[in-house]
Amino acid sequence: MNQLDLKTRHAVITGGAAGIGLAIAQRMLASGARLTLWDRDDAALKQAQALLGKDVHTVRVNVADHADVARAAAASELHAPVDILVNSAGITGPNVPLADYPVD
Predict the structure, then answer these.
(1) Strands 10-14 and 84-87
(2) Most buried one in 1, 23, 38, 54, CB count within 10 A?
(3) Chain segment 67-87, per-residue pLDDT in tens
(4) What is the rounded CA–CA span in Å between residue 41 and residue 101?
């Protein structure tokens, strides 16, 4: 497997406790990144942390709730400055450019 140079980088992965998000987390961890996993499933977060190691930071968050995202972002920044954001959480909404996407 090709390795990316992510040493000293901190990645936040939404939907990071399972599926594609967890696979991305495994790859980034193998490439040296520090990780924070965001997910709304506490049990899945605990399983992912057990799989990936205790140094992986986890935050329970519902990415469809703006206040919850703001809280999670602040908690993640305490762990380390965020360099990379992978949006792997599965939510649906309007099909518009990001700048036009409503916060609510």
Answers:
(1) parallel
(2) 38
(3) 999 999 999 998 789 999 999
(4) 25
